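Sequence only, no structure available. Ideas?
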Amino acid sequence: MRGDGKRWFCVCLAAAAILTMAACGINGGQGSNLIVQEESRGKTVNLFGPMEKSRPDGINISRTAFDMTVSMAEEQLGLIVEYRTYTAENYQEKTYDDVTLDRVRNNMDDLYLLNPDTIQILGEEGKLADLSGLENADNLREVVKTANVVDGKLVAIPQEVVVHGLFVNKDMFDKYHLKLPETPEDLLECCKVFKENGIETPIGANRWWLENFVFAQAYADLYNGGNTEEEIDALNRGESKYSDYMRPGFEYLQKLIDMGYIDAQAAYTYEAIDGEGPDFLAQKTPIVMAYWGAANAVTAYGEPDFELQVIGFPSSRGQMPVVSMTGYGVNVDAEHLEDTMNVLDIILSDEALQLYTETNKVISPSKNVEVDCIPALKQLNDKVRDNVYVLGSNANMKVEQWGNTCLIVRDLLQGATVDECMAEFDRLQEEAIGK
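Reply:
I predicted one. Tokens follow.
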């Protein structure tokens, strides 16, 4: 992984996941920047994550929802879940991922909130317990199992499924009599019409989420063609090349840049939402990309002055949601292993997930719990409910997906050729298989 490769998860996924939000774009050491709660008397389970327990009167809805599910476990099991937290107040040169890797390897906690790269690494090292035996694991959507199985073991489970989509200003599409795009060709035609009508940059982009265009095209058939396991096995053995899957998406991005539909220079400097968001809200650009929760958040796109629609990314199979997720993992050598498994089983129960889902308006990992989503998200929700999606993070793939693809897309934005980008995927694949 290249120099800044540890930070993308904090920016790309954290804003969409409950506790990871505190990890966004921050560094911290493992000493004075780890605030450890005082030991409580009686039975305890030690949880390591980026946030402390919220105050009873706190206004952070995400933390409150998680805390409420933890309280259910504490009450039912008669124990205390101690929050051991990561902060960056001293700005040491270790990221949240660096610290979690070290803590799991040294058996310092019981339960962890993990980003997809660390799930993959620790799963391959055998440091995470198999969660498939949990009673509530039977209720999981297939997308959750697919993303978090390593060497046949279910090593992490999230409380929400993070879905990325294309956010469109439906009013602007209607003004020019355009249908919402289904295929890459449809999107090109829409951008052409917008450009001809004086819209300088039809697609507002940032340096973190353009890989969603690539994933939608690269893996539409892999995840929806009925041969997912076989194709991933072939990639992991080196019989197939990631670069062959990725090339069409990178060529498409290059075309969008060459035709002026994406401003590569601006995208490379823009942070997610903060960069392209103002123009989208001001109706200067009709298309951006973001995660599910941004459609609900007032601080993002929750209150636009136009009709907002969120759809999947254009692919050969139509509009395609891109899914990524953090997850809770249990240290295989946890000091309080049985109690930790029981806590996790309760916070992943349909009762707890219903509470969490209703509070945060997100997609639940349980197939039995449905979100009452806003109209703008209905098309995206319908796709995921029907198991139509591609994964942007999959712990069963030897080459880590989300972060590596994000970094290579950034190379493209800075002028690298598609062939050079594909050579990097080949290098990563050879390196992963050689381990």
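Confidence is low (pLDDT under 50) at residues 1-40.
Hope that gets you unstuck.
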